[in-house]
């Protein structure tokens, strides 16, 4: 018997209404009774069977701040979350726990099937979504390529070309506009980062930086696939997205179409690249190296998708939040401009860009408050005990929470919510030597065996882009309101960052 999509949608809506009614029932009935245990610093208020589902549902629009508040009140900066429809979850902002998870007992905390299932349709068997020998093989291959001199040189040439020939001309035109044209800086930086990762990874140019032109179909498909995959992980009841995927309706139908679009584009790029290689034409991009290494097309495709996803959104998000913070702290911005000009006046190279200490401190401080990746989850293979004596059961989801860690008074002091780049220097007044911060206290690039391979290149890219822009232009947000931080697979600023661009006058 054929059942229409409309019937499916009605059925799903009915299920959703029933869930909401059930939640309301529990809220009304249980409001007259006391929780199983009074609020403690280790778990939110919980009830029999449903656990903390009511609290989770009430705070679903502010999960980051809710978790941060609970962690700050916990003596160990760790909480245990149990709710109907989800596995037992341990959330921690304790650096000792983070080191244990990411390094000391690494083998007991893989991504795990529950995680890889959520992102499997999008990332497939790419390096960010696999465990075991498949991960180790890809890691060795990617590590070899990222540390090679050829890729660093190719990256620097590409970066300088993209900034001077694409990004700065767009800003120059906006600054010269007599009508005071407004641009979404977040979108502009996303397009720039997308082009960079495509050129370095695939050797192609895909996306125009002209804000009057629409984004490319591939970029649009990445946006959609990323957003829907992230909502899978945050869904109060995981079964809902599985039902929708099985029925092929709603957001899951959109995800399927977006992934097909991504696969089609990337596969075409791989085929074209193979032909170029067969014609004995040299190519320095990462895709060429992967093909020459003899890997299967599906593995190459999934690795490329993972690299594009990571390289595109993380750097653009970090830069967007820093530009906003600098607009609120003009004295800090002037220090960045002064330092940047001293470097940009000379020959640009990898090492000189690494030496921008004040800018690095500003970026670190921005990513502490607004990390591109807000949390990362593993799944315990066997029973375990974290250093703070939190019991871990086999199958538990164990999450270290970068967003919350950046707001822990225990780690950063009473001024932890303030933007203070000087905190990253050994002597804040002199601002000469940067501190060596433990990566398990500041794991924005992960740490341990899974530490981000592209960390150094990402920082060099951000340093050059920010320096180049601020050396010539003033960036001023249209609105004085504080933007909303949205955590998807990578975090972004809700609604973008609308700004005016003005030519910087000489001091």
TrEMBL record:
Coiled-coil features, chain-numbered ranges: none
Q: Does the keyword DNA-binding apply?
A: no
Record-linked CDD domains: CYP86A
Cofactor(s) for this protein? heme
Q: Which residues bind heme?
A: 452
Q: Which InterPro entries match?
A: Cyt_P450 (IPR001128), Cyt_P450_E_grp-I (IPR002401), Cyt_P450_sf (IPR036396)
SUPFAM superfamilies registered for this protein in UniProt: Cytochrome P450
Which UniProt key words apply to this protein? Heme, Iron, Metal-binding, Monooxygenase, Oxidoreductase
Q: Does the keyword Oxidoreductase apply?
A: yes
Q: Which family does it belong to?
A: Belongs to the cytochrome P450 family.
Report the PANTHER family cross-referenced here. Answer: CYTOCHROME P450
- In Swiss-Prot or TrEMBL terms, this protein is called Cytochrome P450
Organism lineage: Eukaryota, Viridiplantae, Streptophyta, Embryophyta, Tracheophyta
